[in-house]
Amino acid sequence: MNFLTPLFEVSNLRLNRGGALVLDVPSLAIREGEVFFLIGPNGAGKSTLLQVLSALLRPSHGEVLFRGRKIGEEIPPLEHRRRLAMVLQEPLLFDTTVYNNVASGLKIRGMGKNQFHPIVSETLKRFGIAHLKDRSARTLSGGEARRTSIARALATNPEVLLLDEPFSALDPVIRETLLDDLERFLRETRITTIFVTHDRVEAFRLGTRIGVMKDGRILQTGSPNEVMNRPVDEFVASLVGVENILSGKVIRQNGKNMVVEVEGLEIEAPGEALPGERVALCIRPEDVTLSATGSGRAQNGVNRVGGTLARVIPTGAYYKVFLNCSFSLVAYVSKRALSSLPLEDGAEVTASFEPRNVHVIK
């Protein structure tokens, strides 16, 4: 499998609905073997783009190529859809047994029972629902129905797996086990997958590449690390969990770093800019360290900002701490780290973060 081979190629794609432009994608390539996530808020166009890629919607302008052939002309839509498998937000199972649901796609393709039985049995086992094979789909829980839906899609051995918010509305424990099973399956099979979600945790965990959408446009594509740590603008930064976005003015250079004034405080960040230039500084809360002592300037290559404790929120794995500096600042800290801090409201603390962990948006 060649991970550099474009499986889907989109060019000059536009889709109008009711006179409004709902998709505007000048170019996009999805490579064979990758797990490509489309993330963004509700109404961003994620599901609409997925429907265009699956030939369920015809674009108003532009073209979509699959393996170099234009969908709708060189490849008939029905032929194209037979190469794909789609899992939707709602399972939409047939009113029959779990076994028959998982076998349904293979039956439609003309397989006899002797051919599809071993495939169905293995797929049921892989997704932990073999014990449910004779159960009616109408009696399944939400998690069991999602497992059956995914198993039905994958039993057909599709060239591409399309997932549209498949884990929404599931409780955290069931969602986590489903993610574990899907992650294992994708790692073992390397099936090309396009996954729509508004949950960035799913994207960072499973994705090999991410596309961020807003208002029908793709604002940024890149690896999870690139999108998470080097967002192209403040919208993307906020969407991928950058809770500290500080507006400031460059005042001078300090070697390879620029010094930016933010609400009267000086913060060093990587890069070069002209004095007076306005920039936004993006600092992920997990890159902020808190201590009870320190000063409010960069020392020994580390930014140090003094502030007072405003609020502490437990989130399970860590604590979310809100500070009042000259600006608001958020830090994620462990229980152990929190125990070394004064916890009363208004207590003085120091936030530290390295310049290399500051992403600059000009």
Computed CA radius of gyration, to the nearest angstrom: 25 Å
From the 3D coordinates, which CATH architecture of the largest domain would you assign? 3-Layer(aba) Sandwich
Quote the average pLDDT: 93
Q: How many individual β-strands?
A: 20
- Measured by DSSP, the beta-strand proportion falls in 35-45%
- The stretches of 5 or more residues where confidence is low (pLDDT under 50) are none
Quaternary structure state of the chains depicted: single chain
CATH class of the largest domain: Alpha Beta
CATH fold-level topology of the largest domain: Rossmann fold
Number of helices: 10
Q: Quick one: overall form?
A: globular
Order of helices and strands: EEEHEEHEHHHEHEHEEHHEEEEEEEEHEE
| Class by SSE composition | alpha+beta
Name of the CATH homologous superfamily of the largest domain: P-loop containing nucleotide triphosphate hydrolases
Tally of domains: 2
Order of adjacent strands in the largest pleated sheet: 6-7-8-3-9-10
The major β-sheet equals:
6 strands, mixed
Fraction of residues in helices?
A: 25-40%
